[in-house]
Amino acid sequence: MTKLEKIICEVSRLASNMYRLGWDERNGGNISRIIDDDEIDGFIDVNDVKRTIPIAFDASQIAGKMFIVTGTGKYFKNVEIAPQTNLGIIRICPDGKNIDILWGYEDGSKPTSELPAHLMTHIERLKKDSQHKVVIHTHATNTLAMTYVHSLDEREFTKTLWQMCTECIVVFPDGVSVLPWMLCGNDEIGRKTAEKMRDTRLVVWAQHGIFGTGKSLDEAFGLIETVEKAAEIYIKIMNMPRINTITDEQLKLLANAFGVQVHEGYLD
Ligand code: 13P
Ligand code: ZN
Q: For residue range 28-74, what is the model confidence (pLDDT) as tens digits?
């Protein structure tokens, strides 16, 4: 198997996994992963452009970069069965206003409607971390539920999550950012999401879902999975009297023991 075939399998398996977790109903959710030049090893010909389509914002900062991206309207449950129609490999054109389709979307489809949020997030995360590679958006059930019943203040939201499982603060010491409800699938939500990605690797979209990022599919998924688990505990206990918790002192002990840099000002 070529490197690219392995990546296609990995993305497909992740989509199936997320579907089975119940996070990606119908066409809910989208995945994008940077493809490095050295990952193109014969499986596709980068000079063979299948189609070129416009995008509605300027991505010239990442011109030439290639990504594997889930298609718009595509069901996560089907990706593994037919990756060539549900996924595509795109390259940002030199003008930053068009994309070349190099592989996939074989039924004439195109990348996710959340492409602005994905590409703008890639741009911001790459500034922070040259190893960054992956953006995942999903409708993680309990995280979404939590946005109906919990304050959307980022410090309060993050601290509640940190209190729900001992290892949360170790996994996402930078915390989670939160956007209020906004219309999705456009540049505006993309820009706001990317702005938040300067400080955190996770952005919750209230009453919609979550964006997670990372150096690998595992890392981005693992971040979301950890938030979702904490949110599940919160939803389970929120209507019961809480008689124990993890204190700020204990959170500090964890941060020191594991050597992580906690979001400034979040612990008392
Ligand atoms: P797409 O089908 O365009 O990827 O949209 C799904 C989604 O989750 C929108 O936020
Ligand atoms: Zn969505």
A: 999 999 999 999 988 999 999 999 999 999 999 999 999 999 999 99
Active site residues: 114
Digit-coded pLDDT (tens) for 233-251: 999 999 999 999 999 999 9
Q: Does the pTM exceed 0.90?
A: yes
Tell me, in angstroms, the distance from the centre of ligand 1 to residue 138's CA.
Answer: 9
Which of 184, 188, 204, 205, when mutated, tests ligand 1's pocket best, judged by the most ligand atoms within 8 Å of its CB? Answer: 184
Residue 21 backbone class (left: φ over 0; alpha: ψ -120 to 50; beta: rest): alpha
12 C-beta closer than 6 A to ligand 1: no
Regarding the beta carbon of 60 and ligand 1, being less than 6 Å apart is answered: no
Ligand nearest to the CA of 86: 1
72 in ligand 1 pocket by Cβ < 6 Å? yes
Neighbouring C-beta atoms of residue 215, cutoff 10 Å: 15
Which of 113, 139, 211, 224 for a ligand 1 pocket mutation test, highest count of atoms within 8 Å of Cβ? 113
The domains located in the chain, with CATH, are 1-112 (3.40.225.10), 114-263 (3.40.225.10)
C-alpha distances out from residue 70 to 73, 85, 223, 231, Å: 9, 9, 20, 26
Collapsing DSSP to helix, strand or coil, 215 comes out as: coil
Q: At what angle do helices 217-237 and 3-20 cross, to 10 degrees?
A: 10
Q: How far apart, in whole angstroms, are the C-alpha atoms of residue 109 and residue 129? A: 31
**Ligand 1 contact via 29 beta carbon (within 6 Å):** yes
Contact partners, residue 182, CB within 8 Å, separation at least 6: 188, 189, 192, 205
